[in-house]
Write a structure and sequence with these properties.
Elements (H helix, E strand, L loop, with lengths): L3 E9 L25 E2 L1 E4 L2 H14 L3 E10 L4 E6 L2 E7 L7 E9 L6
Antiparallel strand pairs: 1-4, 2-5, 3-7, 4-7, 5-6
Length: 114
């Protein structure tokens, strides 16, 4: 098993990701992996980065929660999706919000921070 890191995940009240094109439900009981055809998952390296990202969504679209998590870092440098049997980069890591880390798998581990 690869090393686990501590981070923060921004989720909706029902523990789903905030994504327009691929919703994922996270869990306290098991690791969550990307849905087939999508990857990797996004987490934040600090509570502050998660708050800055979550604030905009909380006021506009969702009531968000910031939850501590553990994750296995991905070697990928972009969020991608499978299109016509070919992996296509969707958003590069550099274009994602500050503090974003790409993860192979994520598990929620703590009480809601906010």
């Amino acid at each position: 098993m690869n090393k686990l890191h501590e981070g923060y995940k921004v989720v909706t009240e029902d523990l789903c990701s905030i994504s327009a094109w691929c919703r994922v439900r996270y869990s306290y009981k098991r690791f969550t992996k990307p849905r087939p055809g999508f990857g990797p998952l996004c987490v934040f390296d600090s509570e502050r980065s998660a708050e800055l990202f979550g604030f905009g969504f909380s006021s506009c679209y969702y009531t968000v929660r910031i939850v501590p998590c553990v994750y296995e870092r991905s070697k990928q440098n972009a969020i991608w999706f499978l299109s016509k049997n070919k992996y296509e980069p969707r958003i590069s890591l550099e274009s994602l919000p500050r503090g974003t880390v790409l993860a192979k798998r994520v598990k929620l581990v703590g009480e809601v921070v906010r």
